[in-house]
Amino acid sequence: MSDPGTIARQDSPAFDVDGMLGRLAKWLRILGFDTAFPLSAPSEWRFFVTTRKGAHSPGVIRVFGGTIEEQLREVFDRAGIDPDPDRVFSRCLVCNAVVEEVPRDSIEGKVPAHVFSTKSTFHRCPQCGRVYWEGSHEAKVRKRLEGMGIFVAGESGL
Ligand SMILES: [Zn+2]
């Protein structure tokens, strides 16, 4: 197990999230962090996030909070990092791969017609092929992030 400082100094810290914390794992992915879930065993070079007692080794982050806001705050405080607004919506929420912007023409017929006609920016997951665009869900996510002091510009991906 590496020491937390070393993990936090990586270009982008990565997390393994315990099975009980699925919503937290999803939010870490929304924020663009490499997040493996579910995973029950710590691995080197990654923070291990858990609610379990007795997890005191370096690199292990135990969360106590009941809300996503509280849990994210605990993770960032313990990891000594701040989320990077540029990385929000940069990962596939299903398989954790970094999504790529794709030409609008290339996804015609692959998303609903009303989406294709109203949206200009699309991203695709290279692993599972899922296409992301900005929708009302992302506006809600952005609002909630703002409540946590994380500000993300519009039309930023998902
Ligand atoms: Zn995917």
Secondary-structure-based class equals alpha/beta
Distance between the termini: 34 Å
Radius of gyration: 17 Å
DSSP summary, beta strand count: 7
Output the strand order for the largest sheet.
2-1-3-4
The biggest beta sheet, please? 4 strands, parallel
Gross morphology: elongated
How many discrete domains?
2
Helical fraction: 25-40%
What string gives the helices and strands in order? HEHEEEHEHEEH
The averaged pLDDT comes out at 85
Percentage beta strand = 5-15%
Total count of helical runs of at least 4 residues: 5
How is this structure best described in words?
The protein is an alpha/beta fold and 158 residues long. It folds into 2 domains: 4-83, no CATH class; 85-158, no CATH class. Helix content is 28%, strand content 15%. It has 5 helices and 7 strands. Strands 2-1-3-4 form a 4-stranded parallel sheet, covered by helices on one side. Strands 5-6-7 form a 3-stranded antiparallel sheet, with no helix packed on it. The N and C termini lie far apart (34 Å). The model has no long low-confidence stretch (mean pLDDT 85). The structure holds zinc ion. Zinc ion binds at residues 92, 94-95, 97, 125, 127-128, 130.
Could you write a compact summary of the structure shown?
With 158 residues, this protein is α/β, with parallel strands linked by helices.
